[in-house]
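Lay summary

Proteins are chains of building blocks that fold into shapes. Our project writes down both the chain and a compact code for its shape. Here are two examples, one after the other.
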Amino acid sequence: MTELKNLPRVKIGLIAVSRDCFPLELSRRRRQVVAAECQKLNLPVVELQTIIENENDVLKALKEIEEQKVNALVIYLGNFGPEGPTTILAQRFQGPIMVAAAAEETSADLYDGRGDAYCGLLNTSYNAGLRQLKIHIPDYPVGTAAEVARMIEDFLPVARTWLGLKGLKIFGFGPRPQDFYACNAPIKPLFDLGVEVMENSELDLYDIFQKAAGLPEVKAVAADMAKELGTGNTYPELLEKLAQYEVALLNFMRKNLGASKYGVFANKCWPAFEAYFGFVPCYVNSRLASWGIPVACEVDIYGALSEYLLTCATELPATLLDINNTVPADMYEKNRHKIGDYKPTDLFMGFHCGNTASCCLLNPAIKYQLIMHRLMEPGKEPDITRGTLEGRIKPGEITIFRLQGTAETELRSYLAQGEVLDVEPQSFGSIGVFGIREMGRFYRHVLIEKRFPHHTAVGFKHAGKTLYSLLRMLGLREIYYNQPASLPYPTENPF
């Protein structure tokens, strides 16, 4: 798989705090042991030498943080800790922050060796609320050195995803198609999150494509496409056009990132696109996704955002699929030995035209878009509708996820973990049979009830814990998941 280059590299600073009526050495020693445990886990953690006792120490710490090029921070209460200076540090630091506290080590040393961080974390949390800080506090944030190191390990993908979000620019090309008002994208919630948006017209997209014609890198990209596709290179004469489009998008992103660090796209891809560009852009979208640059279909700006957050959380390419169709009863019965104890309503097919990275597909090949072909080239050999990357999605873990701005400019989100089953979908596109526990109830009481659109971002790893923690840090009030049968939804008929 190609290295994902459009993601942040996280460098975590581990800093201890100490209340002046407790031994400073207790916090130092406990911090050193945590740092050693992080080293065992190969975590990108820098042990900061400043210990925060007062506000002057905050200034020293900020200078050390800058010198060490730290972009995420773990504040560690080795003892009770000074809640004022601790939260001032959190307020001044510009990156993601986790707070954790030391458990007491032994009953043999509960006089001079007792730190009371269990108590101090309560005050820190209270003061964080006074300052309206959004910080990550683990599910149980008090532990031994080894336990705190594992908390930091869990925080790493949260921090990476937070940094990616705050450094992101979404490039949009074209308005939402008329039949896709579901891809509504109110801009204000994106700005509230710290995401930049640059919207452009389809003419702009066509213009940058035309200007990429004849660039020397086009032939090299076409050759790389042929190498990637192998036996799936069914339309070799099409590759140079697709390569020209890829070069155009990447050049545009490089020139227009501006103050942002990372970029994704949400592009109009039909119905006018094919007549002017002469192909379907899906394969190019799949290639960019494999580098950590999702390209959402149908100008789905929040879909692109959701894909990118999944990419940051998993460090794997994500995709955007329709929550598309049910699994027929005969397919269910035929594959019972593979399906196991999933109920029929736990299953659905995830599908899109052909935008999923080749590394996530079995036997990927360039094909034509059947639905568009019916509409645009009825009764003819496929021409302008060629360019999808089709194949069965590989069996394995998945997370479906969407962060959505509503028409009322509020943010809500859902996430659910499951798997792609080893079942042949017997259909076209990038497609797979998905199993998610209690999907039928989740579909009715979350996806429909809360007015989520048909597109879902799909990550190829379980990332629910990371994303839930991120959403909490962002201050979302509405976070939904697939509740077990024993836990009814508020709108579920109890009878």
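And here is the second example, written the same way.
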Amino acid sequence: MPIPTYGPNVVDWETRIDMDRLRTERLARLRAELERSDLGAILAFDFTNIRYMTSTHIGTWAVDKMIRFSLLVRGGEPIVWDFGSAAKHHQLYNPWLDYSGAHPDADPHGAHHGADPRNPSGARAGISTLRGAIHPDAKMGETVAAKIKHELELYGLTNEPVGVDVIELPVLFALQQAGIQVVDGQQVFLEARRIKTPDEIKLLTHACSMVDAAYDRLYEFLRPGVRENEAVGLVAKTLYDLGSEFVEGVNAISGERCAPHPHVYSDRILRPGDPAFFDILHSYNGYRTCYYRTFAVGSASSAQQDAYTRCREYMDEAISLVKPGATTADIVSVWPNAQEFGFPDEEAAFALQYGHGVGLSIWEKPVFSRLVSLEHPEVLEEGMVFALETYWPAADGWGAARIEEELVVTADGCEVITKFPAEDLLVAGQRYYAVNGPLPTQRDSQSHLNTEAGSAAKK
């Protein structure tokens, strides 16, 4: 049965995404990973890890600031330190962070799951160094360290290592000076996030459905004279109109920019016969997409058609192997090596034949790449959600094809949740007519078609 999708509204007449269950199950997975580790606590500065741990969010403007942080200690409840106004908002509207026993989940004796008299609220005022913008003499790193050490002392964990995801050096040094052993904690977070809960899968699928719609609008819009940046604007507006939380990026690549792939859009004007591929990355309730499609504008050369066919074949071979128990090495083994498509080694070709987990961020576990997967394979499990990407340059030296599908690993295989058609190369734009009828959508060089040699080439 396909993964269901719903309207974005909450209703009383249909079971949809259960946000309370989402929060509970995410935290349970994180606790389980912490318990499996040798860490006393995990400390997060990365916004996606903070959100996974605490289910708090203050907007996308702050994702690169490293100002907020959250902590989960063994035997304790999540704590998030935030701007004072944001912390106050969390206290008012995030009851799952209220550990006082005073909210509706409390029993008559004042106890409830998560109640902790030592920590009445898990939402507190506190900031880090603002990536160094606050004067070093203000000792904000030491302030952060003092808050963390206080919590460790409450739970008798001062001698246990603390796992951190990403960290600023002044904060790291302050933690070490406070006697706290800091180690890599990113693996704890990413292992917890590796398998998606049912509600996460529904959110990821809904996010893809929004990109389906964006590609439909884009297909209607593409034509000679359109610029890459205009296509980006159209996609962003479509997604925001549909309820996107954050359009993280739209990769718009056309014409000779396709090979090599620059991974960034420009203001180039599309021309008749251009290849054009796009990658749409956005967030719905925190859950991302990474979703490539390739089009031809008006017509496609035989070289572009061949490139697309080969790109699709590599994709289909990979998808056919996805099931529980298969490995990332199994998948990448059917993809070409770097030398086969013009690169000296796998590092130089990294992220062209590629796969990665998708969740609250891209890229998550597991990773699929000939650079690492053949020697360090990861086993696929039911409930994983990841994207597979293939690329192939056209023989004409300037076109290329790029396809990406997102998949959910099921009990006996997988389900593709990116639905916009990609089995064959789609030709977008105005259909042109000559006296003898419509111009063909596969066309090669037009420079000498009416000469004797050109007429022979047409045949």
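What can we say about the second shape? Residues 102-115 have pLDDT under 50 and may be disordered.
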